[in-house]
């Protein structure tokens, strides 16, 4: 029997230390726009090719609303900017779009509410610090957007980085299965997270049913007796359909709706057998086109309303188009070649399952018209942070949670000992990335102003 040679945690830690020769920790602070050979506006324009043309203007409006809104939709710009810099070469499964609003609450398979990273459209294997730098920058921008003082914004980035480093060292010392099972038990005591969990409790499938659907008036229908086959009486048979809520929700009928429903057959094959059995007990009732997020606006996104044991047993599935990660052009070598042939819905599912403690039980993928799609539940006890809650103490508390969650995700899907070896026990990495976060937040604000100016023209 063949055996696999594994590297010990101690050897990984030493390897991580040696990587400091490739990129010194203090060099992470450096950012200059002079390295750019492509303009941010050009990169954004290229990223919208193939999207629904009518929605590209809406995406630009959402990005123009604030620097943080711009940041959310500008992954292609930051991916390009990060690729211009040195990197550690310590590659990990990334969230890819690590920012404060991409952490949130959702229902686990056992029905309990969990809080974790919950958006993986940009997931990819790449240098671990790319996630860290994006999250740190998001804390600075979110704090500024909430009206926090500059000192608090810088402190929030530092708290996040310190917590990330300390937890990564803790994970490096833990047994493998303890890392896999690790849960954060203090979330209820963190005020911003407690508020998110409270909102998530209210976001039930029943609440979604009442929010997104309405009763469609229908003509009387003939109902036959079950045993005799004779006409018993005429009854009204009300059925729920999706509302039209411009510009975010529009009912879809005809051939497009049939195509979306037919795609569930392929999707079911991506589920585990017992979950496929549960899905089979639901029947599709209606289909709509939905606009979601900021970076995803313009991609095709459908929602399917399904019923199990009647109208009081709703299930909403989101069928979301997935395209290559914004980081894909900058990941070199054989790994890039493998990803180019991968189903991008499956890529997202694999990244999500690798980094999350528990994932949506209906997480899967399908294909329509040669396009890749992710499938998951829509709004099943989902909720995320509101920026106005990220002021002073709330910002610092939330920053610590971000550090712990990102460290857990990276430790689950990568080599925590190697990352810990690179980070070391001193705050050098923290200080350098905090300085980068401030500088890149300033750059983001300049890029945002450039976008706003271009849209006025």
Automatic annotation (TrEMBL):
For this entry, the protein name equals DUF2252 domain-containing protein
PANTHER family this protein is in?
Answer: DUF2252 DOMAIN-CONTAINING PROTEIN
- InterPro entries assigned to the protein according to its UniProt record, in alphabetical order: DUF2252
């Amino acid at each position: 029997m063949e055996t696999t040679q594994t590297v010990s945690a101690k050897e990984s830690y030493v390897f991580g230390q040696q990587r400091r020769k490739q990129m010194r920790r203090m060099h992470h602070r450096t950012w200059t726009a002079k390295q750019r050979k492509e303009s941010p506006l050009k990169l954004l324009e290229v990223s919208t090719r193939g999207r629904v043309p009518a929605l590209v203007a809406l995406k630009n409006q959402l990005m123009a609303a604030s620097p943080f809104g711009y940041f959310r939709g500008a992954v292609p710009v930051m991916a390009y900017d990060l690729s211009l810099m040195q990197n550690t070469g310590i590659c990990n499964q990334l969230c890819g779009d690590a920012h404060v609003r991409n952490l949130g609450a959702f229902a686990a398979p056992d029905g309990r509410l969990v809080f974790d990273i919950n958006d993986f459209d940009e997931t990819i294997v790449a240098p671990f610090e790319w996630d860290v730098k994006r999250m740190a920058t998001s804390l600075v921008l979110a704090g500024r957007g909430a009206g926090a003082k500059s000192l608090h914004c810088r402190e929030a980035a530092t708290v996040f980085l310190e917590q990330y480093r300390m937890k990564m060292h803790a994970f490096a010392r833990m047994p493998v299965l303890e890392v896999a099972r690790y849960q954060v038990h203090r979330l209820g005591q963190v005020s911003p997270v407690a508020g998110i969990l409270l909102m998530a409790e209210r976001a039930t499938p029943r609440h979604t049913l009442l929010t997104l659907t309405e009763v469609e008036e229908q003509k009387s229908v003939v109902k036959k007796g079950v045993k005799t086959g004779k006409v018993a009486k005429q009854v009204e048979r009300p059925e729920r359909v999706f509302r039209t809520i411009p510009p975010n929700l529009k009912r879809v009928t005809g051939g497009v709706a049939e195509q979306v429903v037919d795609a569930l057959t392929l999707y079911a094959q991506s589920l585990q057998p017992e979950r496929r059995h549960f899905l089979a007990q639901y029947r599709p009732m209606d289909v709509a086109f939905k606009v979601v997020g900021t970076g995803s606006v313009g991609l095709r996104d459908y929602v399917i309303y399904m019923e199990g044991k009647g109208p009081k047993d709703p299930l909403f599935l989101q069928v979301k188009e997935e395209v290559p990660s914004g980081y894909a052009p900058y990941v070199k070598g054989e790994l890039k070649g493998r990803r180019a042939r991968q189903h991008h819905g499956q890529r997202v599912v694999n990244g999500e399952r690798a980094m999350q403690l528990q994932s949506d039980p209906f997480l899967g993928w399908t294909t329509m018209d040669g396009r890749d799609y992710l499938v998951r539940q829509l709004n099943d006890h989902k909720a995320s942070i509101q920026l106005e809650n990220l002021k002073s103490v709330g910002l610092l508390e939330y920053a610590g949670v971000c550090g712990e969650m990102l460290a857990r995700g990276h430790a689950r899907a990568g080599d925590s000992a190697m990352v810990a070896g690179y980070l070391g026990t001193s705050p050098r990495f923290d200080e350098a990335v905090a300085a980068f976060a401030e500088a890149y937040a300033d750059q983001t604000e300049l890029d945002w102003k450039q976008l706003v100016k271009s849209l006025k023209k």
